Amino acid sequence: MFALEGLRAGYGLLPVLHGIDLSVAAGEVVAVLGRNGAGKTTLLRTIAGAQPMTAGRIGLDGHDLSRHPAFRRARAGIAHVPQGRGIFGRLTVGENLDVGSRAAAGRGSPGSLEAILADFPVLAGRLGQVAGTLSGGQQQMLAIARALCGAPKLLLLDEPAEGIQPNIVHQIADLIPSIARTRAMGVLLVEQNLDLVVRAASRCLVMEKGRIVHATTPDRLDDEALLKELLAL
Asked: What is the C-alpha to C-alpha distance for residues 67 and 74, in angstroms, rounded to an integer?
């Protein structure tokens, strides 16, 4: 179980997150929705340790990670796939996956490469290919697969549908809940593509001005009045 209690963070003197409370259970996919500037990316960056927190608690399986640096959070089981993917473009696909496996150091075995490639067959025949030469959709697949190589307990996904062709978005949408269940892993998903959210998420949280202001279920996202009120769509 992953839990945030009263999480606050910001940039210099500018506060962005104002006391976020949320939880994600093993096997659950929780989507975070909101207008641009609501603090969604800052939330994921703060959980991963890329952005300092100013108050609150970050807990994973009963362990307090609040004061841990980013590398220790990764080794504790938090994996972050940032917006823009963040792959190592000059390394091969295989080398990217090997880098991802190092996050499991001191916590057990890395994720099985065979099992990961079974979920991402497009990568199986490309292990020797330079990652920067992959298509955008293939790079997104690689970014997620690399994160899974660290055998995470919590996967943070920031806009995985961004710039991806629709058929790949559908593949990712079906894959996210499947890997969450089979790996007993929580997923915290920031996404503006509502089709992906409806297909992938167990429940949805709406952020506004650095706060969680509403909780709903994916089936409610076809309510145009609700979307207009909460997301200005």
From this structure: 13
- Per the listing, tokens 């000059």 go with 90
Instruction: Find the helix packing angle between 136-148 and 93-101, rounded to 10°.
Output: 30
Q: Which residues contact 56 (CB under 8 A, 6 or more apart)?
A: 4, 5, 6, 7, 8, 19, 20, 66
- Pair of tokens at residue 25: 């259970």
In whole angstroms, how large is the CA radius of gyration of the chain?
17
Owner of token pair 């769509």: 233
Give the other-Cβ count within 10 Å of 81's Cβ: 25
- The helix/strand count (H/E) of the chain reads as 9, 10
Q: Which pLDDT tens digit goes with each residue over 156-192?
A: 999 999 989 999 999 999 999 999 999 999 999 999 9
C-alpha 137/C-alpha 189 separation (Å) is 17
Confidence band of 230 (pLDDT split at 50, 70, 90): low
Can you give the pTM of this predicted structure?
A: 0.93
Distance CA(29)–CA(211), nearest Å, equals 19
Contact indicator for 37, 224 with CB cutoff of 8 Å: no
Instruction: Tally Cβ neighbours within 10 Å of residue 19.
Output: 14
DSSP state of 192: S
- Please give the Cα distance from 92 to 4 (Å, whole number): 36
